[in-house]
Design goal:
7 strands; alpha/beta; 12 helices
Length: 368
């Protein structure tokens, strides 16, 4: 099956599980603020653009859901938006709850995701049936024309795998002495970009088969402005800082040089224009909205050094543990915190050359 074949080529990079101090659930609030910020935009776009079929169960998928709580906020916003559209389309204002479509929500992530934590955290007052769907979203995970609404936030910057050239010592893209592409040579950057292009082609091809005509896909992605070098993005600076810490640990004999040289973080920050190009090349979706979102702060306050460190640890901790061993984690992030203090957390958390952008795509009619 196509879904099985695609899944074999996609590696899993789970966020830190559970509900401890370093868990993703407790360190992703800044992303949740962005999801809440676009609520009114979602209501408007879904009301105007979505073609719903109230006589059928309404299928929603959240791709790359992780373990919450952001996925639950996003799903609530989506359902509120669909209900608003349905109620506003009725001639009478006496629409009852029983007349609204039944919602089936599918929470998708890799098999290594902490689905137990996810389902333990499900809101008690939810207005939907919940199911988990394991598998990489770079392949097929749903039947043909089954989804009405798809959401994916802060997941598409994760590549399906580290570009193979980076691990080949004979390749000009061998990334010796670095853990990311942003401060590397042109060949490394090209390898990351090529992997991103392959992944996005697979992502859009799969969704084009799974989403009904007239259905919508809402994407929120971390990105970078066109024309800005990748080394200038705050998020990438944070990853480069991880590399700096690991290099220092190599010099101290804590981490082997071979292990260090074989480690690369599989993320790529795309520009809105790169996403637009991928959508046009796929040809199955119309771009209903593509806009850069304003920087928003948690409770109006910038992240401090501890919060930045915990956020990066919750995101990369499992990946680093798998490669270097659990015994390195505390030392690495103690050093990371020190370095964040030296350069000031705003250089990572609030750099203006990192951006979040929103894309709303509508499945075009199938041409016969």
């Amino acid at each position: 099956m196509e879904a099985e074949n695609n899944g074999k080529t996609s590696a899993a990079y789970p966020m830190n599980s559970g509900d401890g101090p370093y868990s993703y659930a407790n360190n992703s609030i800044s992303l949740g603020v962005v999801i809440d910020h676009i609520r009114e935009i979602m209501i408007k776009d879904i009301s105007e653009k979505l073609e719903i079929t109230p006589s059928k169960p309404f299928w929603i998928a959240d791709l790359g859901c992780s373990i919450g709580p952001n996925t639950f906020s996003a799903v609530k916003n989506l359902i509120d938006s669909v209900e608003f559209k349905y109620q506003s389309s009725q001639e009478t204002t006496t629409t009852t709850q029983s007349e609204l479509p039944q919602f089936q929500v599918f929470f998708n992530d890799h098999t290594s995701n902490d689905f137990n934590m996810l389902f333990k955290s499900l809101p008690g007052d939810r207005r939907y049936y919940a199911a988990g769907v394991p598998g990489s979203f770079y392949g097929r995970i749903f039947p043909d024309a089954s989804l009405h609404l798809v959401h994916c936030s802060f997941s598409l910057h994760w590549l399906s795998q580290v570009p193979k050239e980076l691990r080949d010592k004979s390749s000009p893209a061998w990334n010796k002495g670095r853990v990311h592409y942003s401060n590397s040579g042109d060949e490394v950057i090209k390898a990351y970009k090529a992997q991103y292009e392959k992944d996005m082609a697979l992502f859009l091809k799969a969704r084009a088969q799974e989403i009904v005509c007239g259905g919508l896909m809402v994407l929120i992605s971390l990105g970078i402005p066109s024309g800005v070098h990748h080394s200038e993005a705050g998020g990438n600076r944070g990853f480069d800082l991880v590399g700096s810490c690991l290099k220092e640990m190599v010099e101290k004999g804590i981490v082997s040089e071979e292990k260090f040289d074989s480690f690369n973080i599989p993320t790529y920050l795309m520009t809105p224009q790169e996403l637009e190009t991928a959508v046009k090349e796929n040809g199955s979706f119309a771009i209903e909205r593509l806009e850069v979102l304003p920087h928003v702060k948690v409770n109006g306050v910038a992240l401090n050094s501890h919060q930045v460190t915990f956020c990066v640890r919750s995101t990369l901790g499992e990946l680093i543990k798998e490669h270097f061993g659990e015994e390195t984690i505390d030392q690495l992030f103690d050093l990371y915190f020190q370095k964040v203090e030296e350069i000031h957390p705003s250089s990572i958390a609030e750099a203006v050359k990192t951006l979040s952008f929103l894309a709303v795509l509508k499945r075009k009619p199938i041409k016969h």
